Amino acid sequence: MGNYDRKDHLYKKAKEEGLRARSSYKLEELDKMFKLFRPGLIVLDLGCAPGGWIQVALRRLKGSGKVIGIDRLDVIAFSKSELQLCNSLENPPVILKGDITSDEVQQQVINIAGRHVDLVLSDMSPDLSGVHFQDAARSAELVEIAFDLARKMLIPGGNVIAKIFPGPEADQLFKEKKASYKSLSRVELKSSRKTSKEFYLVGQGFIPRLEGN
What we know:
The protein has a single domain, classed as Rossmann fold (3-Layer(aba) Sandwich). 37% of the residues lie in helices and 22% in strands. It has helices at residues 9-16, 24-34, 52-61, 80-85, 103-113, 132-153, 168-177, and strands at residues 42-46, 66-71, 94-97, 117-122, 154-164, 181-187, 199-206. The protein has a 7-stranded mixed beta sheet with strand order 3-2-1-4-5-7-6, with helices on both faces. Strand 2, helix 4 and strand 3 form a beta-alpha-beta unit. The N and C termini lie far apart (38 Å).
């Protein structure tokens, strides 16, 4: 695996701006490109630790809507000062610890949301082996999970974003899922690390009746 500067300028900028991760800027970039957020949305963040994407979602929603995060790892509770910076002191995120593939956890999400969700986010990444084809295959498995959850939990017209590594599995997933959205895009981000091969699948306008065709 190539070496990179973990503490690059975006890492340092995130610290200065009170963000938990440099990856926050990836979601900001995606929002500028696709206009993902509007007041009142219910947002589901898969693999949400350490919480950087949750912070961006809260800031964009400005105290409205609801943000639900799920991870198998512990996520440090958001402090009062963090919530104030996100304009969400009166409407904090709900963080669940568990496996999102579990029917029980999925039902928890629906119960908390009160309805199906508007936006599914996934910046999930596998534990990297350094062997590209293995990492690409594992990444595709996580994206399959994200799109399967989107199929179950998105409202009609809802959106999904998932990180994936290039490879034949990514190409196949793109072909399989394209019919289920009014638009399915593949985008590389300027805010991704220069050494990263990742890109994002962005599905907009979920069409439930076509999922699986």
